[in-house]
Design a protein that fits this description.
It comes from Polycladomyces abyssicola. This protein is α+β, with helices and mostly antiparallel strands. Helices cover 19% and strands 27% of the residues. Strand 13 and strand 14 form a beta hairpin.
Length: 322
Amino acid sequence: MVMFMSFKQKNHGKWIAYRVTPEWEGHTVREVLQGPLLLSNRMINRLTRSRGIQLNGKMPWLDRRVKAGDRLRVAVRPFERADLPPEPVPFSVVYEDADLMVVDKPAGINVHPVRPGEGGTLAHGIIHYWLSQGREGRVRPVHRLDRDTSGLILIAKHAYAHQLLDRDLRQHDIRREYLACVAGRVENPEGTIREPIARDPNHPLRRCVSPEGDPAVTHYRVLAQNDRASIIWVRLETGRTHQIRVHFSSLGHPLYGDKLYGGPMEGIGRQALHAWLLSFRHPLTGKHLTLKAMPPEDWLQLTESLHFVREEWTDGLALSGD
């Protein structure tokens, strides 16, 4: 069982502690770190250099054999300097603790710099927010949102949390739900799109459905529709670049405002896509978290201009998280 300790030492924040169980007796310190604590070799090497590993209160050799009842402590929350300059960038904090945070990103900003010297990203804004509270660190997004997609994004505050959350993401243990407004009436009220996605050979930014692409799975349900548009609930099983945009465009239903994939351009100045729900198990406490954020004003104004009544589609969201 992993326990949280408030013990502090130079260059380290809180430590976690693990009591060696009988089934791990006789294994090496390294094997225990890689086993129940799920530490990568890279992280183990980093902790060794920073004296961030203790066995029964002393720095151990990594090949030392452990006994049942031994206490292993690991400094997985090091104090880190920011790797980007702080800038005031708008966003809302939906949840935050010592290991992670979930923020509601506005449309129109990148999650992190995509070219050298780029500023004004969400990462710059988070660093500014942390510094205003007397804290510092590095921003580690667990997943991405396109520049013009609004909504929830999960941020790890240290490398260990990022490693565990990245593993959960790859194992499909992090639930991500979106709301999209697409052109036209979608024929099937619900379904799953299983079409691989690859780079479009004819366009440097676009992706396309291709048998040579990476597997991509999108689950969806129609919440409301008329002859002009459909409001869609979407759950991602995989997270390919532009996945929702590509999949619905391939069905003949591009997103409103999505110029890159041929969507109608009236009513909104960006693709009508919002990441509205994240549900996951906290990697260190084990607590299950479900966090939500309703779409911003431009998304709501679009749906109203298309003659949707809000209750038409919000009633269907009661099924989310099932």
